[in-house]
Specification:
Elements: H1 8-20, H2 24-36, E1 41-44, H3 46-53, E2 59-64, H4 68-78, E3 81-83, E4 91-96, E5 99-105, E6 107-111, E7 118-122, H5 126-131, E8 141-143, E9 150-152, H6 157-163, E10 165-166, H7 172-178, H8 181-193, E11 196-197, H9 199-208, H10 217-228, H11 233-242, H12 246-249, H13 269-282, H14 292-300, H15 305-308, E12 310-311, E13 317-318, H16 322-336, H17 341-353, H18 367-377, H19 381-390, H20 397-421, H21 432-439, H22 445-461, H23 466-479
Parallel strand pairs: 2-5, 10-11
Antiparallel strand pairs: 1-2, 1-8, 3-4, 4-5, 6-7, 8-9, 12-13
Length: 486
């Protein structure tokens, strides 16, 4: 009895066609619209890959021999709305119901040696279009305008998908020279798909990592975000570090690979960082699901250590104030990567605060200390909870359990004080207008000083009430020789 090996292309075609039933009527009407206008249309790239994997979403990519102006005319009749911002690159986007599509003219593109913008040339065949794509698993297509759908797989993408390996359709060197950002996409797909990487790709990235410098910060940022927000970012980050790519756009990460002193008195900071990231992800349900801010904070929380590393006489190592240095480094790096100001501020603040819990030893937290912890964290309190818990990577289970119990106690204290004192809206017992009226002064820096003084009292002693706060304010003013005489 002979056994016949399964055909990956046949299996892939059946899976892809089955998944397309989710959007059957929509895709059918779209294909008919292009066919009736005399053009071809094929589902291509990531959606075909995802259809085979059984996770086809509502964002679909198509390729066609129609030029952008022709695609635009067809899509205006077909969709609810269209976007032509990518027309210069051959792409017209449209939306119908909950489904967003992009239709791109067959093309080939490459970068000049020193240019950040690709040169785009439109093609006439789907074969040429597929040959220019980044990886074989993204170079499969379903031609939809024939009598029946035709699965096209010129580079055995289905086989590579089955083997869970990333390869390029042609030589990796040519592919990455055409678009250096594809080197970062390799890391992203490794993290998203849990794939291994063809050795030719590793060699090419090692040789060509410097080419990434011609890519804009915005495009690099988007690939970093996609890698971080994947199911297994550790795999992608490791590839970025090991091939030298990270040294181009995030040099702080490979620098965490510190030499461990001869007595091994500190842990591997790089491995610790990747573990903290994984543990933060495990706690993300507290933040409502996948969260970019906490993942960036986990990645960056110890980047100040290399700059603050000092050997201690007699053995050991210290990293005094690495959270302060790290917060400044984080802000600088995220600004250079063109992250928005809110993300920059939130992540750098979390890096600055990540050691605050450990400053209270075994949990000797006064009410004043708890209030300050809440105030300093502000809207990031839950993020700080997640980061602090994730930052415990000790293999000593007794120590880990003790830290967890101590933080449990702190969180309980926080909730109790918040309930008693409305600490989410913490402010002095007197506002600025009241301060000016009581002291008989006009708006000035003195009002701010008085406000800060009363806020410190509020932090230290809890709610005072207006009467006691007025007495304290007058005593403070008397010490400074202020009052209504002014």
């Amino acid at each position: 009895m002979s056994t016949q090996k399964p055909n990956p292309q046949k299996i892939a075609a059946e899976l892809a066609l089955g998944a397309l039933e989710l959007h059957g009527p929509l895709i059918t009407t779209l294909a008919r619209a292009f066919k009736e206008s005399g053009f071809t249309l094929a589902l291509v790239g990531g959606p075909v890959r995802d259809a085979i994997l059984g996770r086809l979403g509502n964002d679909l990519d198509f390729t066609t021999n129609a030029r952008p102006a022709d695609s635009s005319k067809i899509l205006k009749r077909w969709g609810d709305s269209i976007w032509e911002t990518g027309a210069a690159f051959g792409t017209i986007a449209a939306k119908s119901g909950d489904v967003t599509i992009e239709v791109t003219t067959y093309r080939s593109e490459s970068y000049d040696r020193d240019s950040r913008k690709p040169e785009v040339n439109f093609g006439d065949s789907i074969e040429g279009d597929l040959s220019r794509r980044d990886f074989t698993v993204n170079a499969m297509a379903l031609e939809l305008t024939g009598d029946t759908p035709v699965f096209i797989d010129l580079f055995d993408g289905a086989g590579d998908l089955a083997k869970k390996i990333l390869r390029t359709p042609g030589s990796a060197q040519t592919s990455f020279s055409d678009d250096p950002l594809r080197m970062m996409r390799a890391a992203r797909f490794v993290a998203q798909l849990n794939f291994s990487v063809d050795p030719e790709i590793i060699v090419a990235i090692n040789e060509m990592s410097g080419r990434l410098s011609i890519i804009s910060s915005e495009r690099i940022r988007e690939e970093l975000i996609k890698t971080l927000m994947s199911q297994n970012p550790r795999l992608g980050l490791q590839l970025l570090v090991e091939t030298g790519l990270a040294a181009i756009f995030l040099p702080e990460l490979p620098k965490l690979k510190l030499e461990i002193d001869e007595h091994h008195h500190h842990k591997d900071v790089y491995e610790h960082t990747l573990t903290v990231l994984e543990q933060a992800i495990a706690h993300e349900e507290r933040l409502g699901g996948p969260n970019l801010t906490i993942r960036l904070a986990a990645l960056m929380h110890d980047i100040g250590k290399p700059r603050t590393r000092e050997l201690i006489p007699g053995g050991g190592v210290s990293f005094h104030h690495h959270e302060v240095v790290g917060a400044k480094m984080t802000k600088k790096r995220l600004v250079e990567l063109r992250f928005d100001s809110k993300t920059v501020d939130e992540v750098s603040n979390l890096v600055f605060l990540h050691l605050r819990f450990h400053g209270y030893g075994g949990g000797e937290w006064t009410d004043s200390a708890v209030r300050r912890y809440i105030r300093d964290a502000g809207d990031l309190l839950n993020h700080l909870h997640v980061l602090t818990r994730a930052d415990c990577t000790t293999r000593n289970q007794r120590k880990a359990d003790q830290l967890a119990r101590t933080y449990d106690s702190l969180e309980k204290r926080i909730e109790e004080l918040k309930a008693q004192e409305e600490l989410d809206r913490i402010r002095p017992d007197l506002d600025g207008q009241q301060i000016m009226e009581i002291l008989g002064i006009k708006p000035s820096r003195l009002v701010g000083q008085a406000y800060d003084y009363l806020l410190e009292l509020r932090m230290e002693r809890g709610p005072l009430g207006e009467a006691d706060a007025t007495k304290e304010l007058l005593a403070w003013a008397s010490d400074k020789e202020l009052g209504r005489s002014q």
